[in-house]
Amino acid sequence: KEWADKSRRDMQDSRGLEHDPPPLYHHKPKPIREEVEDFVIDICDDEHAMVRGELVKAGKEAYLWLRDYFVDSPGVVVSNKAHFLELAERWQYDPCERTDERP
Protein backbone atom coordinates (compact mmCIF):
# COMPACT_ATOMS: atom_id res chain seq x y z
CA LYS A 1 0.00 0.00 0.00
CA GLU A 2 2.80 2.42 0.88
CA TRP A 3 4.49 1.83 -2.50
CA ALA A 4 1.17 2.30 -4.34
CA ASP A 5 0.46 5.57 -2.51
CA LYS A 6 3.96 6.90 -3.26
CA SER A 7 3.58 5.92 -6.92
CA ARG A 8 0.29 7.76 -7.17
CA ARG A 9 1.75 10.90 -5.55
CA ASP A 10 4.78 10.78 -7.86
CA MET A 11 2.51 10.38 -10.90
CA GLN A 12 0.44 13.32 -9.73
CA ASP A 13 3.51 15.49 -9.14
CA SER A 14 5.32 14.55 -12.37
CA ARG A 15 2.23 15.19 -14.52
CA GLY A 16 1.06 18.28 -12.64
CA LEU A 17 -2.33 16.74 -11.93
CA GLU A 18 -4.64 18.85 -9.81
CA HIS A 19 -6.64 15.90 -8.49
CA ASP A 20 -5.53 12.63 -6.96
CA PRO A 21 -5.27 9.76 -9.45
CA PRO A 22 -7.57 6.82 -8.70
CA PRO A 23 -6.22 4.20 -6.29
CA LEU A 24 -4.28 1.21 -7.62
CA TYR A 25 -6.15 -2.04 -7.07
CA HIS A 26 -4.68 -5.49 -6.57
CA HIS A 27 -5.02 -7.61 -9.71
CA LYS A 28 -7.10 -10.76 -9.34
CA PRO A 29 -6.77 -13.33 -12.13
CA LYS A 30 -9.99 -14.15 -13.92
CA PRO A 31 -11.13 -17.73 -14.36
CA ILE A 32 -10.50 -19.30 -17.75
CA ARG A 33 -13.58 -19.16 -19.97
CA GLU A 34 -14.91 -22.53 -21.05
CA GLU A 35 -14.68 -21.73 -24.78
CA VAL A 36 -10.91 -21.23 -24.58
CA GLU A 37 -10.11 -23.97 -22.06
CA ASP A 38 -8.84 -26.33 -24.79
CA PHE A 39 -6.27 -23.76 -25.96
CA VAL A 40 -4.70 -23.09 -22.55
CA ILE A 41 -1.10 -24.25 -22.14
CA ASP A 42 1.17 -24.65 -19.16
CA ILE A 43 4.24 -22.64 -20.18
CA CYS A 44 6.31 -24.72 -17.73
CA ASP A 45 5.73 -27.95 -19.68
CA ASP A 46 8.93 -29.26 -21.29
CA GLU A 47 7.41 -28.95 -24.76
CA HIS A 48 7.45 -25.15 -24.35
CA ALA A 49 11.06 -24.87 -23.16
CA MET A 50 12.31 -23.36 -26.44
CA VAL A 51 9.63 -20.64 -26.46
CA ARG A 52 10.21 -19.98 -22.77
CA GLY A 53 13.93 -19.60 -23.50
CA GLU A 54 13.20 -16.94 -26.13
CA LEU A 55 10.86 -15.11 -23.75
CA VAL A 56 13.50 -15.16 -21.01
CA LYS A 57 16.13 -13.88 -23.47
CA ALA A 58 13.83 -10.99 -24.44
CA GLY A 59 13.08 -10.35 -20.77
CA LYS A 60 16.78 -10.12 -19.94
CA GLU A 61 17.40 -7.68 -22.80
CA ALA A 62 14.42 -5.57 -21.68
CA TYR A 63 15.62 -5.55 -18.07
CA LEU A 64 19.14 -4.48 -19.07
CA TRP A 65 17.78 -1.69 -21.28
CA LEU A 66 15.51 -0.47 -18.49
CA ARG A 67 18.38 -0.55 -15.99
CA ASP A 68 21.10 0.90 -18.21
CA TYR A 69 19.16 3.50 -20.21
CA PHE A 70 15.52 4.06 -19.39
CA VAL A 71 15.35 4.78 -15.65
CA ASP A 72 17.98 7.52 -15.79
CA SER A 73 16.75 9.11 -19.03
CA PRO A 74 15.73 12.78 -18.95
CA GLY A 75 12.00 13.19 -18.52
CA VAL A 76 11.53 9.71 -17.06
CA VAL A 77 10.13 9.53 -13.55
CA VAL A 78 10.35 6.21 -11.75
CA SER A 79 8.62 6.38 -8.40
CA ASN A 80 10.76 3.80 -6.65
CA LYS A 81 13.73 3.00 -8.86
CA ALA A 82 15.09 0.20 -6.67
CA HIS A 83 11.72 -1.56 -6.43
CA PHE A 84 11.02 -1.10 -10.15
CA LEU A 85 14.39 -2.60 -11.08
CA GLU A 86 13.97 -5.41 -8.56
CA LEU A 87 10.71 -6.39 -10.28
CA ALA A 88 12.12 -5.99 -13.80
CA GLU A 89 15.23 -8.01 -12.87
CA ARG A 90 13.01 -11.07 -12.51
CA TRP A 91 12.28 -10.92 -16.25
CA GLN A 92 15.73 -12.39 -16.98
CA TYR A 93 14.91 -15.65 -15.22
CA ASP A 94 12.82 -18.60 -16.25
CA PRO A 95 9.73 -18.44 -14.01
CA CYS A 96 9.53 -22.24 -14.10
CA GLU A 97 12.96 -22.72 -12.48
CA ARG A 98 13.30 -22.94 -8.76
CA THR A 99 14.74 -19.74 -7.34
CA ASP A 100 17.58 -21.63 -5.61
CA GLU A 101 18.81 -22.70 -9.08
CA ARG A 102 19.36 -19.09 -10.20
CA PRO A 103 22.77 -17.44 -10.30
Structural key phrases:
mainly alpha; 44% helix
Radius of gyration: 18 Å
Low-confidence stretches: none
Number of strands: 0
Please work out how many helical segments DSSP would assign: 3
Biggest β-sheet strands, sense, barrel: none
Can you characterise this structure?
The protein has 103 residues and is mostly helical. It is built from three helices and no strands. The radius of gyration is 18 Å and the shape is extended. The chain starts with a helix and ends in a 14-residue tail after the last helix.
Summed up, what is this model?
The chain is built from three helices and no strands. The protein has 103 residues and is mostly helical.
Tell me the layout of helices and strands.
Blueprint: H1 2-15, H2 49-70, H3 81-89
